[in-house]
Design a protein that fits this description.
Radius of gyration: 53 Å
Number of helices: 15
Distance between the termini: 192 Å
Largest sheet: 3 strands, antiparallel
Structural class: mainly alpha
Strand order of the largest sheet: 1-3-2
Oligomer: single chain
Length: about 400
């Protein structure tokens, strides 16, 4: 019965592939995931993980998608369906719909493929020839389980080869996004998506860095627009701004036509380190630099040398002169200069003056003295008058007075 059934199927489907593995939806999906990247490589040669090689060999090869020998480590994408479908389209002059491709799969002999296997062939062919499935004039996101017959294959409008080459190079050097060299719809879409994502992620940092850099340069007496560092920062900011808001179809052209003021290397460092560089500019000791600019003339030569080093770092591209070490060096030199100016010089011990002795008082010499007792008041007055009349220059007199007042009795 098995032999008879086999003969009947071979008669009905004479071109049926001889699969070495059971064809199921999940195995076809695994094969698609492994084989699809080969459509985006120029030579179609793709390394396959060791554990998945048997499945690719047992299904992809019988479906005429490519070749993979028993001992081979790489899958080589084939040209069978690309040639076959192209010839049939030329012969019939009909448009390429999924329904038409299904008929051509069984021409000249029926293959009897399950629908999922037909879908695999059609999707690999579309990717290999840079065509997109459209349903009702809109792109259709097909899967192995859903590829409607009414879908039409349309050749994608690809960028110019020269633009693609430049965009691919700049995506890597400026944004750090690596793309595959083959100019295909899949590669263009992947590169555009990743570049736009990277631009959106770095946009704010690039804007803040360019703004802070311009401010610090102006404070340090530089003309920002004439310096390489600001030219690079402005160009990088402009590019990520455009990429962030561009239509996906315009990403390649935007990259290819971008203004490169200094170099792609400089712009790449700017985009990759924008947040870090802005932080360096924020935390540097700008007040210290401002102080040494105001030092007296005798210290200006040293201050000028420090500020010249700082200006050089602000003016140069990052790959020429790294900003962070230069800022630290300039700040350290400025602090040492200021510390020297405020050092406390050792003072000589204070000399305690000898106490000033007051001049010795001259002793007074007594040149005359007398005393009288029991004088009446008129007699006392007369005695004082006589004393006053006899007093000479430079002489003084001290008088002791005592009295007794009496009343009654005999004189």
């Amino acid at each position: 019965m098995q032999h008879l059934l086999s003969q009947a199927l071979e008669h009905e489907f004479p071109a049926a592939p001889h699969f070495e593995a059971e064809v199921k939806s999940h195995t076809l999906k695994k094969v698609y995931e492994e084989v699809f990247p080969a459509t985006q490589i120029a030579d179609g040669r793709l390394a396959i993980e060791k554990t998945k090689r048997p499945l690719v060999r047992q299904i992809a090869a019988p479906l005429l998608l490519g070749e993979m020998g028993i001992d081979a480590t790489h899958f080589l994408l084939g040209q069978h369906w690309k040639t076959h479908f192209g010839r049939k389209a030329a012969e019939t002059g009909s448009g390429m719909t999924v329904g038409q491709l299904r008929k051509w799969i069984d021409d000249p002999k029926p293959m009897g493929l399950p629908k999922d296997a037909q879908n695999l062939v059609i999707l690999i062919y579309a990717a290999q020839t840079s065509q997109t499935l459209y349903l009702h004039s809109a792109p259709y996101d097909a899967t192995l389980s859903a590829v409607p017959d009414v879908c039409e294959l349309r050749r994608d409008k690809l960028p110019e080869a020269a633009d693609w080459e430049v965009a691919l190079k700049r995506a890597g050097s400026i944004l750090g996004v690596a793309g595959l060299k083959l100019l295909s719809a899949g590669n263009v879409n992947t590169l555009s998506s990743e570049c736009q994502k990277k631009a959106s992620e770095t946009r704010r940092a690039c804007q803040a860095y360019a703004q802070r850099l311009r401010q610090r340069m102006t404070e340090m007496g530089l003309a920002p627009a004439t310096t390489d560092r600001l030219k690079t920062a402005a160009a990088a900011q402009g590019l990520v701004d455009k990429l962030s808001t561009a239509e996906p179809s315009a990403i390649v052209k935007t990259l290819a036509s971008a203004s490169i003021e200094t170099s792609e290397t400089a712009m790449g460092e700017c985009v990759g380190k924008a947040a870090e560089l802005e932080g360096n500019l924020d935390t540097a000791g700008w007040q210290t630099f401002e102080l040494i600019r105001k030092l007296p003339d005798e210290h200006q030569s040293t201050a000028h040398a420090i500020l010249a080093e700082l200006q050089q770092a602000l003016s140069s591209d990052e790959h020429v002169l790294e900003l962070a070490p230069a800022l630290r060096s300039a700040q350290a030199q400025a602090m040492r200069l200021l510390e020297k100016l405020v050092e406390v010089k050792p003072q000589k011990p204070a000399i305690t003056p000898a106490p000033i002795e007051p001049p010795a008082k001259k002793e007074k010499r007594i040149v005359g003295q007398d005393s009288k007792q029991d004088l009446t008041l008129p007699a006392a007055k007369d005695a004082l008058a006589d004393l006053d009349s006899t007093l000479k220059s430079g002489q003084s007199v001290r008088v002791n007075v005592s009295w007794v007042i009496e009343e009654g009795g005999e004189a």
